[in-house]
Amino acid sequence: MNQTDRLLFILQEGEGYAIEFKEKISDLDREIVAMANGTGGSIFLGVTDECKVKGINLTNELKSQIIDIARNCDPGIKVDLFYFDKEKVIEIRIAEGNDKPYRCKDGFFLRIGPSSQKLKRDEIVNLINHSGKIQIDQVLNYNFDYAQDFSNEYLHEFLRYCGINTQLATSDILLNLGVVKLENKKLIFTNAGILFFAKQPQKFLPESYITAVRYSSLDKFSIIDRQDIKGNLIQQIENSMNFILRNISVVAGITSRSNQREDIYDYPMVALREAITNAVVHRDYFYDGSHIYIHIYPDRIDIENPGGLYNGLKIDDLGKRSIRRNKLIADLLHHAKYIERVGSGFDRMKQTLNQNNNPPMEVQATNFFDVRFYKRLPDPMLSSLSSRQLLLFRIFQERQQITKKDVSIALNVSEDTAIRELNILLKMGKIKKLGKGKAVYYMLN
Known about the structure:
Elements: H1 3-13, E1 19-22, H2 28-37, E2 40-45, H3 60-71, E3 79-84, E4 89-95, E5 103-104, E6 107-112, E7 115-118, H4 121-129, H5 146-149, H6 152-162, H7 170-177, E8 180-183, E9 186-189, H8 191-197, E10 210-215, E11 223-229, H9 233-245, E12 250-254, E13 261-265, H10 269-282, E14 292-296, E15 300-306, H11 327-335, H12 345-355, E16 362-365, E17 368-374, H13 387-398, H14 404-411, H15 415-427, E18 431-434, E19 441-444
Parallel strand pairs: 1-2, 10-14
Antiparallel strand pairs: 2-4, 3-4, 5-6, 6-7, 8-9, 10-11, 12-13, 14-15, 15-17, 16-17, 18-19
Helix pairs in contact: 9-10, 10-12, 13-15, 14-15
């Protein structure tokens, strides 16, 4: 392999789960323990965060410094050094540690996406408890035959998404992406490699697909469109979006931001794409009894995937912290521009829902992770209502008149609570109060 071409490929690929760029050795111990606590990787000294080569000389003194920094971690970590003479870049190779967790003078760190993050107490305990847990996306699959099952077309399509142009041999590209291992001069694919680059991924992981269904009513018995969406993970994301686009409404409107004409959908496409990508990244591929589902109802869309929240995460942590169940899959989708900053997805969904005048999304996590999106509201004022108040408003849309007792039964609340919810809609001018005494009833205004 031409080492200059390899370095060029890595610079185009950018930082990721197993790649870190640093100009100098400051805080090098953090990056070393983060790699060792994860699945290993390489640190490239003499390269900026913007993937620009600045260069650094590998003197005997610097070599000793690097080795001492790694040795002084607790427990000590063995590193291998490689020097790119022409570019003056040092590669520090770190294998996955056998004695996790590792710490440096500043604490415990772990590789999360393309950055190293300091761990809190519960996260350290979780790392200890799960240090031997198998990551299914990184498991080698010996049933995959490179000559028969690999799709070169899918690989080059992936590289186009990444914006990578390289002269490296296919085997070298796959090794640098981390999706294969070399055993006895034979390429063995990981499950992540199969999910991205197999001609038929479902031949090896049968439940790794998405079922999308559209219903004509609020139950699951009136199906009017259905599709099992297979292929590689990028194809699944794109074809899921195509299914949704043909099954939701769109109107032409003028945007207040740019005063330009644009299509306005029932749901913001950015939020839906983010939710589907999250389902692909975070689903539990160990769970082989089900797969990802997209349910489209007249008033909402539900997206659910096998596997609840990852150990150590709570629903309140979404958008604040990021722990990925399938780190290699997440890293590949990050390079393909499907994932942006760590933990930014939920904030982006909330923002686009608000801009599109959709109610807030709802999230549930048991053995499955469910995200529910409600259809956009025709009246921007309604977007400030709670889920209970929105349900009440929909009841008004279906009935001519309602009493406080009707509201109490429909919402499963006391009559005092029913009155409070009705008063909110009254103050907004959305409903009107008619009658007197016990004959009081309410109607849409």
